[in-house]
Design goal:
78 residues; 4 strands; alpha+beta; 33% helix; 3 helices; Glutaredoxin; binds FE2/S2 (inorganic) cluster
Length: 78
């Protein structure tokens, strides 16, 4: 199992993704992921309209239409 420093989740906080609910994901991560993964935001992945868009590293997995359930699963996994 990798430690916290090896895991990063990047949530788009661009206008389109915020309209699609990114703020809920960001709030949840801030409140729940402190000891599991690193977290940051990025302004737009160029996938507007398919939000919220989230990038998971180091896998470099880009998730469109990301849900709270996906975030919860990711946090629990590590
Ligand atoms: S605003 Fe999120 S991908 Fe563009």
């Amino acid at each position: 199992m990798m430690n916290k420093k090896n895991r990063l989740i990047v949530i788009c906080n661009g206008k389109s993704c915020r309209r699609d609910g990114a703020n809920h994901l960001i709030k949840y991560i801030k409140e729940n992921a402190n000891n599991t993964v690193e977290f940051t935001t990025k302004y737009c992945f160029g996938r507007c309209g398919n939000g919220p868009v989230t990038l998971i590293l180091p896998e470099e997995k880009l998730i469109e239409n990301c849900t709270l359930a996906i975030i919860q699963k990711f946090i629990k996994k590590y």
